[in-house]
């Protein structure tokens, strides 16, 4: 059996541009990954199957397998590589659904990596990225766990900056926030936005990190807050937490985050959010290439 983490994906910033001819948005973002999240397990089998466990599995129980990104990733990879073998896949779903932390994308990316190893497929990085992009704009960036600069609609990936040791608190006020309506609200407000630019995100120390966060933004945050005002309250509470370096919403929401230099501070903020009835998780971040 092969088991791989499918870590939570966080947008430290997210700049959105115009809609492309393919219907996707140009974007510029810095993705980072928590050390915790969902888990993918694969083992040999005669046919392809998907089993889901974990606290958020019940939310996906009525979804047909062929509409699950993990199952689709397996089918697509098998077809592309001419693999006839099957696999028993287990998805341990620990992250909230439709939460802006790339749960489905990270799950699909981990499934691809695990099945490449299980089926002993010889596939280059670029070919795997192209296949991953067919599954979703965020999937290619989730193939790696290091900070990555992401542009295009998600298909252009470059090594991101090295960051100082960081811990993150993720908080979701138990609000599902499907991506489509948030992007449509953005499009209505900004029918012709300028091309998004990657930020010069230098963060060799905590002071630089704070400055870099102040100089960037999440263009979707205001539209998610409009649909769920509790998001603003969560961000404000996280920003005021002892030791917080910065706080923001991730992706299209509704999960928000705060960055900390201390695991104790991150855990304290998570417990405070849980006491208010929110889902919350504290975790270390992968902060540089090769971080294990």
From TrEMBL:
Keyword Repeat: no
Ligand binding (ATP): 96-106
Involved pathway(s): Isoprenoid biosynthesis; isopentenyl diphosphate biosynthesis via DXP pathway; isopentenyl diphosphate from 1-deoxy-D-xylulose 5-phosphate: step 3/6
A Pfam short name: GHMP_kinases_C
Taxonomic superkingdom: Bacteria
Catalyzed chemical reaction(s): 4-CDP-2-C-methyl-D-erythritol + ATP = 4-CDP-2-C-methyl-D-erythritol 2-phosphate + ADP + H(+)
Catalytic site positions: 9, 138
Ranges where the GHMP kinase C-terminal domain occurs: 198-277
Cited SUPFAM superfamilies: GHMP Kinase, C-terminal domain, Ribosomal protein S5 domain 2-like
GO molecular function, one term: 4-(cytidine 5'-diphospho)-2-C-methyl-D-erythritol kinase activity
Entry keyword set: ATP-binding, Isoprene biosynthesis, Kinase, Nucleotide-binding, Transferase
The GHMP kinase N-terminal domain, residue ranges: 68-143
Listed EC numbers: 2.7.1.148
PANTHER family reported in the protein's UniProt record: 4-DIPHOSPHOCYTIDYL-2-C-METHYL-D-ERYTHRITOL KINASE, CHLOROPLASTIC (PTHR43527:SF2)
Function as written in the Swiss-Prot or TrEMBL entry: Catalyzes the phosphorylation of the position 2 hydroxy group of 4-diphosphocytidyl-2C-methyl-D-erythritol.
Entry similarity comment: Belongs to the GHMP kinase family. IspE subfamily.
Protein name per the record: 4-diphosphocytidyl-2-C-methyl-D-erythritol kinase
Taxonomic placement: Bacteria, Pseudomonadati, Pseudomonadota, Alphaproteobacteria, Parvularculales
